[in-house]
C-alpha cells in the first residue's frame, strides 16, 4: 500500500481541518486498517473534537483505494485541488511513482490507498506499508513492514540544518516469524533454527578426536556439520538433539565401526540406519543432500 503525506495533508486542508490538528487526525486515519470508518469518525469527533461535517468530508476521500485511475480521478477534483496546492504536489508525486512502478511491471502488487497515514510526524513524502496477503489456507495477516520518505529529520541533528532527503523502512520481524511458524505447523513441519545438515554423534566414550576428524572432512566437503561439545555425551541425548533441532542426518561413531572402517548414517526422520565406508561417507552424504 502506498500514499503520500503531502496528499493526505492536502485532503485535510481542503476538508477544513485546522492545521494544528493535522497530526492528531492523521493518527486517527492511520487506524482504518484495524477499525471501521464509523469508529475512526467517532474518535475524530468525540475524542479529538473535530467538526462532524469535516470528518464526513475526510471519510469520502480516505475510504478510496485503487491504481493510477484513482490519481487521475483526484486530479479532476476541483474541490480538492482548488483549495490545496499541497494536494496537487502529492498527486503529481504519486502519478510519477505509479508510472515508475508500471515500468518495473509491479503494478499488480501496489495499491494506492488513501487510508494509509503512517502516524509518525516526520514523514514528508511517499509512505508505504508491505502487507502479507493470505493464501488458500488462511486469512490476510496485515502489515509486516512500513516506512516512507523524510526530508527534515536528519537535518535536525546537523549544526547547519542541512536538508538530507531519506527513505526508511521498519520490518515486523516478530510478526514474520510468527507467520512462518504457523505455516510450518500447518504443514506439520518442524521449525528449524539451525542450518546444520549432519550431526556427528558418538556411541562410546573417548571418541572426541574421531568426531573432530569427521567434522573436518565434512566442512572441507562443504557440508554443514556439528558435534556435541561434551566429551562423553549419551547417545540418546545426541539423537534427541537432532530430532529437536530438525537436523536431517546423523553419523554414529563407535569403537566397532572405527575398527571396521565404517560409520553409521542415520536418517533422523525415519530413524533408518545404514553402514557406509568411512572413506566414502563425505561423498555419500553430499549426494544424499543434493538429491533432497
TrEMBL record:
GO molecular function per UniProt: ATP binding; histidine-tRNA ligase activity; RNA binding
Reactions this protein catalyses: tRNA(His) + L-histidine + ATP = L-histidyl-tRNA(His) + AMP + diphosphate + H(+)
Residues annotated as signal peptide: none
Domain of life: Eukaryota
GO BP term, pick one: histidyl-tRNA aminoacylation
Root EC class: ligase
Alphabetical list of InterPro entries matching this protein: aa-tRNA-synth_II/BPL/LPL, Anticodon-bd, Anticodon-bd_dom_sf, HisRS-like_core, HisRS_anticodon
Enzyme nomenclature, EC number: 6.1.1.21
Residue span, Class II Histidinyl-tRNA synthetase (HisRS)-like catalytic core domain: 4-176
UniProt keyword list: Aminoacyl-tRNA synthetase, ATP-binding, Ligase, Nucleotide-binding, Protein biosynthesis
Start and end residues of each Anticodon-binding domain: 197-287
Family according to the record: Belongs to the class-II aminoacyl-tRNA synthetase family.
Protein name, per record: histidine--tRNA ligase
Organism: Homalodisca liturata
UniProt lineage: Eukaryota, Metazoa, Ecdysozoa, Arthropoda, Hexapoda
Amino acid at each position: 500500500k502506498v500514499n503520500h503525506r503531502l496528499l493526505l495533508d492536502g485532503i485535510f486542508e481542503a476538508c477544513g481541518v485546522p492545521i494544528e490538528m493535522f497530526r492528531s487526525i492523521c493518527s486517527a486515519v492511520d487506524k482504518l486498517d484495524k477499525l471501521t470508518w464509523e469508529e475512526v469518525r467517532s474518535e475524530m469527533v468525540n475524542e479529538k473534537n473535530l467538526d462532524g461535517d469535516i470528518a464526513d468530508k475526510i471519510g469520502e476521500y480516505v475510504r478510496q483505494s485503487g491504481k493510477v485511475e484513482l490519481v487521475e480521478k483526484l486530479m479532476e477534483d476541483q474541490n480538492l485541488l482548488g483549495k490545496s496546492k499541497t494536494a496537487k504536489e502529492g498527486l503529481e508525486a504519486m502519478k510519477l511513482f505509479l508510472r515508475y512502478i508500471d515500468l518495473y511491471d509491479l503494478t499488480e502488487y501496489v495499491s494506492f490507498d488513501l487510508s494509509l497515514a503512517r502516524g509518525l510526524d516526520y514523514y514528508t513524502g511517499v509512505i508505504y506499508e508491505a502487507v502479507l496477503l493470505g493464501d488458500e489456507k488462511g486469512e490476510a495477516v496485515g502489515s509486516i513492514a512500513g516506512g516512507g520518505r523524510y526530508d527534515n529529520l536528519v537535518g535536525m541533528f546537523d549544526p547547519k540544518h542541512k536538508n538530507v532527503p531519506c527513505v526508511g523502512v521498519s520490518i515486523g520481524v516478530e510478526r514474520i516469524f510468527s507467520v512462518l511458524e504457523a505455516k510450518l505447523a500447518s504443514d506439520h513441519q518442524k521449525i528449524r533454527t539451525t542450518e546444520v545438515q549432519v550431526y556427528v554423534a558418538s556411541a562410546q566414550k573417548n571418541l572426541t578426536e574421531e568426531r573432530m576428524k569427521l567434522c573436518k572432512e565434512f566442512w572441507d566437503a562443504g557440508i554443514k556439520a556439528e558435534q556435541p561439545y561434551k566429551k562423553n555425551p549419551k547417545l540418546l541425548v545426541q539423537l534427541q538433539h537432532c530430532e529437536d533441532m530438525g537436523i536431517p542426518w546423523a553419523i554414529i561413531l563407535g569403537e566397532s565401526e572405527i575398527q571396521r572402517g565404517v560409520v553409521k548414517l542415520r536418517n533422523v526422520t525415519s530413524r533408518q540406519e545404514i553402514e557406509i565406508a568411512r572413506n566414502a561417507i563425505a561423498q555419500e552424504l553430499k549426494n544424499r543432500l543434493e538429491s533432497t
